[in-house]
Every structure is written in C-alpha cells, then in structure tokens.
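Lines hold sequence, tokenised fold; shown next:
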Amino acid sequence: MKGSDLKSIVKEKYGKIALQSESDQPVSCCGPSSSCCDTDYTIFSENYEGLQGYNPEADLGLGCGLPTEFAGLKSGQHVLDLGSGAGNDCFVARAIVGETGKVTGLDFSDEMLAKARRNAEKLGFTNVDFVTGDIETMPFANNQFDVIISNCVLNLVPDKHRAFAEIMRVLKPGGHFCVSDVVVGGGLPEKLREDAELYAGCISGAISLEEYMEAVESSGFREIRIHKQRRIELPENLLKSHFDEPELQDFLSGETGIFSVTVSAIK
C-alpha cells in the first residue's frame, strides 16, 4: 500500500471513530458490535482508570500502552503527544506537568481534534492545545519540546525513519521520547497478518521490532530502552483458522506474533 493511501484510510477511519463516539456510550466505537468499522481496536488498550488526569470521555480505547508511565514527566515540562486523538494521554500528561507545564497534541483528523478541544474546554485547561499536522512533517520549530509521547500511532505512519527524524528535530537537546506502539515479531504468515489487520486495524503499517529499533537508532537517538513488551492476544478462532493444534502451541510459545512495545530514547 502506498503511504498516501494508508494515511487516507487511517484519517477516514479515525474520523468515523471520533464522530461515532459522540453519540455512542461504549468506550470505543470499534468494539465487536460497532457499526463504524469492522475492527476491534480495544484488544490493544490498557486500563487508564485510577491514573491522575484520566478523563473517560477522552479514552476511545485506541492505545496499546501507557507511555506516560515510563516517560519520566516532570512539573513544568512541555510535552508533545503524537496522534493525540481525543486527548487521553494529553490530559494524563497535563496532570503531571501541572499548571507551569504545557501539553500539545498533534493529529491530522479534524474530527479527533474537534473532540479533543471540546474535552479540554470542559476541563478548563488553558495549557493544553491541539494542533493539526502530519507526523512526517510536523508544523513545529526545531528544539521545542522536553518530552514526546505517542500511543499506538507511529506504526500507522508510512515512513518510520522520517517520523523519528522529525521527533529528533523538534525535541530539545537532552530531551527524550517515550512511545507505545505495535510491532510484528517473527515470520508472521501473510494471510494471518491480513486477517488480523481486518480484526484489529492498529497493525496496519506495523513493522518488525528489529526494523523499528533500527529506525530509532539511525535517527541518532541514544540510550534506547524497551520498557515493556506485551503479546497481543488474537481470538482463538482466528488463530485456529491458520494453525493446527501443534502449530498453534508453537506459535503461542514462540517469538512470532503481534506485540505492544513501549520504547524510550534520548536526543
């Protein structure tokens, strides 16, 4: 798939998610019974309840980790959230950086940006803003942010090297990023990958962990660290359509599969 085509699909799907979440009560409009899409994005997500700053209205179940848990955020910092959606991670980050800090969310979905801005307005935040833009060509000056976070978004960006080069550019010297993302491990059968993509759209554009780490390293980052790695559990009936029982057990116990990883590195 061409990069421009992937971006168009992602923009359209996430726009629909934002619009449907305005009228539906479930946390994510892409649950099994959803009519907005045929995918279940919630199998990647982790539980935010209990986190300071958590706002259920901003949680659409679209993440695959808790990047703020490992980001080492501090009071007064300026944080950028890439692919900020309805603002979920932005509001958690704001609770940590406080009144003296600032949080900026970047997204290219007009519908998501509108929802995030309404959420921020309801919360009365004046130091959280949301900006329209593309991660591969961010509309920011060099050396602007202390910390960059992202949650299950960079795998959807066609050019990972360009994305990490942009992260490097807009971070302040000594600044760092912490992102949760989706990667593919081992020789995942192509047909299984296609079927898994229909079930859980977040794996669109996902690359291997080795390729992912190479993109980070080649962009010049140092002290690269994997904080957490978690296998994404696909439905048993989906796996059984591709493996007999011995093959299935080998698959589940091996390094082949779809994984959520949380990675950080320093500029």
Summary: Residues 3-266 form a domain with the Rossmann fold fold (CATH 3.40.50.150). The first helix runs from residue 3 to 23. The longest strand covers residues 171-185. The beta strands are 78-82, 102-107, 128-132, 145-151, 171-185, 222-231, 257-266.
